């Protein structure tokens, strides 16, 4: 049996970078500038022997006005409905921001099966965020670096029981 993993979180935390790593192709655009990827993208993910469908939720990066929150909510809710498990990504360098709290609330309300991942976790700068992340009440955060491929073993360990 396989499963569907949706990567959710605010713009610029590194969702598409992880998507590309899992899918192994540049299906999702990654850019330093917000505003490149849109909506939901689906690919075939693999992590060692695990095979699964992975969804990259983008499409938030365009909004600069007060519609951002509504769009985040709709898109995230759709991703949650499509997925067996959500990888909720925060930016370990930025810390836990108010926008992250909004996502945490959506995921809690939808009763989503959540894996909390603190990305950009390479180096010591991430240590504080790991502690802050516990306060989101979504379980133990996994420290990863989508760019450098760190934490993929831990991610595999939490995904394996779902497969
Ligand atoms: P998205 O908006 O959540 O899809 O984020 P992107 O995947 O487009 O990444 C946003 C920025 O973060 C890009 O400049 C990435 O290169 C950078 N980034 C992604 N993962 C990491 C990481 O593990 N470490 C660091 N330092 N930067 C990262
Ligand atoms: Mg993206």
TrEMBL record:
Residues the record lists as binding GTP 1: 9-16, 56-60, 119-122
Source taxon at top rank: Bacteria
Domain EngA-type G, residue spans: 3-163
Family that this chain belongs to: Belongs to the TRAFAC class TrmE-Era-EngA-EngB-Septin-like GTPase superfamily. EngA (Der) GTPase family.
Subunit-level organization: Associates with the 50S ribosomal subunit.
Primary role: GTPase that plays an essential role in the late steps of ribosome biogenesis.
Protein name, per record: GTPase Der
Naturally occurring in which organism (per UniProt): Yoonia vestfoldensis SKA53
Gene that encodes it: der
């Amino acid at each position: 049996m396989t499963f569907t993993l949706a990567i959710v979180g605010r713009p610029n935390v590194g969702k598409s970078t992880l998507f590309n790593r899992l899918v192994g192709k540049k299906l999702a655009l990654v850019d330093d500038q917000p505003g490149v990827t849109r909506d939901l993208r689906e690919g075939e993910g693999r992590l060692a022997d695990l095979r699964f469908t992975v969804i990259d939720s983008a499409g938030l990066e365009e909004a600069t006005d007060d519609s951002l929150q509504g769009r985040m909510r709709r898109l995230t809710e759709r991703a949650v409905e499509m997925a067996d498990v959500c990888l909720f990504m925060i930016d370990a360098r930025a810390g836990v921001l108010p926008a992250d709290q909004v996502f945490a609330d959506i995921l809690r309300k939808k009763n989503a099966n959540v894996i909390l991942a603190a990305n950009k976790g390479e180096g010591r700068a991430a240590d504080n965020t790991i502690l802050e992340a516990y306060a989101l009440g979504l379980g133990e955060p996994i420290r990863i670096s989508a760019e450098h491929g760190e934490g993929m073993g831990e991610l595999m360990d939490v995904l394996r029981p779902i497969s």
